[in-house]
């Protein structure tokens, strides 16, 4: 069964691995990270390329769970 999943801290490590594995398993995955226009911009592009190459529903979104304002925007 396809699920919509939000992964926090997906710019590296377990978050990145989890996002990619779940997307490859057929789920719609939102990989969230801080500063998608700055520090994480290269990672956003990497995710876009990975999703296109593998025909996955894997999207990035900016989210900083340590800042209430960022959480409220989502």
What key attributes describe this structure?
74 residues, alpha/beta, Rossmann fold, three-stranded parallel sheet, 3 helices, globular
Shape: globular
CATH class: Alpha Beta
Reported CATH architecture = 3-Layer(aba) Sandwich
- Give the total of domains: 1
CATH homologous superfamily designation? NAD(P)-binding Rossmann-like Domain
Q: Point out poorly predicted stretches.
A: none
The first-to-last residue Cα distance is: 24 Å
- As a whole number of angstroms, the C-alpha radius of gyration is 12 Å
Could you describe the largest sheet, including whether it forms a barrel?
3 strands, parallel
Mean pLDDT: 94
Number of helices: 3
Structural class by helix and strand composition: alpha/beta
CATH topology term: Rossmann fold
Instruction: Encode the helix/strand succession as letters.
Output: EHEHEH
Strand order of the largest sheet: 1-2-3
Helix fraction, binned, reads 40-55%
DSSP summary, beta strand count: 3
Strand content: 15-25%
Descriptive overview:
The protein is α/β, with parallel strands linked by helices and 74 residues long. The chain has a single domain (4-69), classed as Rossmann fold. Helices cover 43% and strands 20% of the residues. It is built from three helices and three strands; from the N terminus they run βαβαβα. It has helices at residues 13-24, 41-54, 68-73; strands at residues 4-7, 28-33, 58-62. The chain has a three-stranded parallel β-sheet with strand order 1-2-3, with helices on one face. Strand 2, helix 2 (41-54) and strand 3 form a beta-alpha-beta unit.
């Amino acid at each position: 069964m396809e699920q919509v999943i939000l992964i926090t801290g997906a710019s590296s490590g377990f978050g990145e691995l989890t996002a990619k594995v779940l997307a490859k398993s057929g789920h719609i995955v939102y990989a969230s990270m801080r500063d998608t226009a700055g520090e994480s911009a290269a990672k956003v592009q990497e995710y876009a390329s990975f999703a296109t190459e593998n025909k996955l529903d894997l999207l990035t979104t900016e989210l900083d769970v340590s800042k209430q304002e960022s959480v409220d925007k989502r």
